[in-house]
Prior knowledge:
By secondary structure, the chain is of the alpha/beta class. The chain contains 14 helices and 12 strands. The protein has helices spanning 20-31, 61-71, 90-103, 113-124, 139-148, 160-170, 194-203, 227-230, 259-268, 270-273, 280-294, 297-318, 336-348, 378-391, and strands at 47-48, 106-110, 129-134, 151-155, 176-182, 207-212, 239-243, 253-257, 328-332, 351-352, 355-356, 367-371. A 7-stranded mixed beta sheet has the order 2-8-7-6-5-3-4, with helices on both faces. The protein has a 3-stranded antiparallel beta sheet with strand order 9-12-11. A two-stranded parallel sheet has the order 1-10. Helix 8 (227-230) links the parallel strand 6 and strand 7. Helix 3 packs parallel to helix 11 (280-294). It is globular, with a radius of gyration of 22 Å.
Amino acid sequence: MCAPPPHKCPTIIQTSMPTKAYSDILVHLHEENRLRSIPSAGTPARTDLLSNDYLGLATRSSEFMPEFLRRFPDASFTSSASRLLSRRNKYHNRLEKCLGEAYGRSVLLFNSGYHANVGMIQALAIPGTLFLADKLAHASAIDGLRLSGADFKRFAHNDVRKLTRLLKENHNLYDRIIVIVESVYSMDGDIAPLGQMVKLKRQFPKMLLYVDEAHSFGVRGARGLGLAEELNLIRDIDFLMATLGKAAASAGAFVATSPEMKDYLLNCTRSFIFSTALSPAQTAWSLLMTEKIAKMQPERLHLMSLSTNFVNKLYERANIETPSQSQIVPIIIGDPGEALNMSAHLAERGFDALAIRRPTVAAGSERIRISLNALLTEPQTDALVSAIADYR
């Protein structure tokens, strides 16, 4: 049975207390056009603009399966324990070594970006620590801050002037100040001013820089290591986190950091210590995918060109301005009902692009999030511009 469209209210059974309050919340979400459901299977006839398969590796996965089976025949589908308890770590160690050699840093694997951010931030939140987080930092980072009970402040998005003021005001009050940003922001598609932030580290020696490269790993840099590689800043970032479930077409995450901090995180990060490790098979697949990514500079250049042309044509043909500087292109609408309507219009024109609503984005910034990938062609993105312009 097909799942109902996101804008249709599923059957909500009115129950007696104590669960009636939950049903009331569902009704309220429906009334505000914010009730969500898991999308059904995609329609082959539609162009997928939903996923974070930025290089098209997930779409091409069957192409790589023979090589995977030949090279990793002993990779099992479960680790059966956390890494600190199990000896089934061969492929985890190999992947950490491969990534470590690429970054010139020590690397520690995590089960997901959410696990990594929540766990590491909690571990780093020892007495004497202040966190300064960009207001658009990912929910996992904010959850980590709240769950840790740490002192933290948030600064206006990409506002280096405000960040500088906060550093000045607090530099003598704390032993360390950890600044948390994303390199490419998942909903706006713009990029952090990492160069300016690295300069602040020289001005404020207590500052540490924590960068989430989830949406730039695989996509930016000559070897796909992210925006930090593109800007030649890898050695200047204290904690460089990236995920393997987006451009790398796998699952999991990792942090590149100093050897000392790897040892500290390994011993003090609860999400690492108390989680069953990624399966060896999944980790071996990630190893294969990262090897492919390193050689995909033509795809990265194509995706960058495609994204730039798409953004320019949105303005020229539909009078739509967007903050995007990457493969993530938001069409800001500002109303949840209109966002759902535009999503339905694009589906009719052959494009899968879902509405993004509160709480994923702030009220009044509801949008269609266009996620471009390297398998798309310029005629396809031109047709997408036409569909958007027709709706407008």
